[in-house]
Specification:
The protein is an alpha/beta fold and 375 residues long. The chain has helices at residues 4-16, 21-32, 40-70, 78-85, 90-104, 168-178, 194-201, 210-213, 249-257, 346-349, 351-368; strands spanning 76-77, 108-110, 117-120, 157-162, 185-189, 217-220, 234-238, 264-270, 288-297, 300-308, 321-327, 331-334.
Length: 375
């Protein structure tokens, strides 16, 4: 029969190896099965070792949970935490206790409409020093001469929202080409594989050589752009996809924006026909200093300036429109004789008004022409 002091040594050894209290208790029960009662002092010390290990487990569990939360970015939920640590039952309840305590201590705050979703509280305010030396505007070039119409500064966001086949990628590639010698350019491509990308670049004229395109850093990336942003370069995201919960796109933009220092960010997004804003809604414009819609207008492609925070000169640029052409999927430029102008019609002024205009026109045709065939 095993000596009681040996049982104590085994339990103590398990504790030193950080074995779980469940395992320690199981071993203890098996070793003592069929034995007479252990000496009280041996029994007491064994229980103290197991209890001490339990306290340590709880302490380490709490530390792991807090470390996980404090290192998270954006929103996080208790469900995600439980899934990451693969816990349930009492341990899942302890996660709730930890989260509630962190909220009470002002470390996290609830967000959204769903219970148990929260974010970290930012306790490091970014103080702006008005006495700091003035920074010059960012000297970049943009299609349609947009860089001559608005002033762009460090850490600015440009948003290009376009309908299908309206030239969004052509716009983004032209921006990359025009600025390849001005600053480091990182192009995040979420749609095309390598061969499709090569084919797309071949649509440009012969003087757009491969050697020059290689000055741009091309990345196949569909998410987590913030992990690869060049804080001091020109970053082009083509395109930012919107998940099932479109409202979260503002958080996606914020995370990328927070990685910028002296650099700029151009974001390309999808826009449905006859909608004023990109998929994700009006919130997509919150951080943009310049935003342009690329649409299929009644008389060809139509570009519309929807945000222009720092326009040059005395003319307000928001709302200006122009017609443009995309040549073989490569060069994007004004249509012949075009430049930025005020909308000539209500249909040009807004995609929503364009839809209403077409509905009225269709109704009028139905009334005036008995032979009019409905779609």
């Amino acid at each position: 029969m095993i000596d009681p002091t040996d049982i104590l040594k085994i339990i103590n050894d398990l504790a030193k190896r950080n074995e779980s209290t469940n395992k320690m208790a199981t071993v203890y029960e098996k070793l003592t099965a069929g034995m007479d009662a252990l000496p009280p002092d041996i029994q007491k010390e064994a229980m103290q070792i197991i209890a001490g290990q339990k306290k340590l487990e709880i302490k380490l569990f709490e530390k792991d949970i807090k470390d996980f939360i404090t290192n998270a970015t954006g929103r996080i939920s208790m469900q995600e935490i439980a899934g990451w640590f693969d816990v349930r039952g009492e341990e899942k309840k302890r996660i709730g206790t930890i989260v509630r305590q962190m909220e009470a201590d002002g470390e996290i705050v609830s967000v959204g409409d769903k219970h148990g979703v929260f974010r970290l509280v930012d306790k490091n305010p970014h103080i702006m020093d008005l006495t700091a030396p003035e920074e010059p505007e960012c000297s970049i070039e943009l299609p349609f001469g947009l860089h001559n119409l608005v002033t762009l500064y460090q850490k600015n966001i440009i948003l290009v929202s376009g309908e299908k086949d309206a030239g969004k990628t052509a716009f983004a590639m032209n921006v990359a080409w025009m600025n390849r010698d001005k600053m480091p350019v990182s192009y995040f491509n979420s749609e095309m594989g390598l061969e499709e990308l090569r084919g797309r670049l071949r649509k440009f004229p012969p003087d757009y050589t491969q050697e020059e395109w290689q000055k741009i850093t091309w990345m196949e990336q569909a998410r987590h752009f913030e992990d690869f942003i060049n804080p001091d370069g020109l970053n082009i995201i083509d395109f930012l996809e919107v998940g099932a919960e479109a409202f979260t796109v503002t958080d996606d933009i914020r995370r990328v924006f927070d990685k910028l220092d002296k650099g700029l960010l151009l974001i390309v997004m999808q826009k449905r026909s006859y909608k004023e804003y990109a998929v994700g809604g009006e919130g997509t414009l919150e951080k943009a200093r310049l935003a342009v819609n690329l649409e299929h207008g009644p008389e060809g492609n139509l570009a519309r300036i929807t945000v222009a925070k720092n326009w040059k000169g005395s003319v307000r640029m928001k709302g200006k429109v122009c017609r443009y052409n995309v040549i073989e999927g490569g060069i994007i430029r004004f249509a012949r004789g075009e430049f930025w102008k005020d909308p000539d019609t209500q249909a040009e002024a807004s995609p929503v008004k364009q839809k209403a205009f077409e509905a009225v026109k269709k109704t009028k045709n139905e009334k005036e022409d008995p032979q009019f065939v409905k779609e």
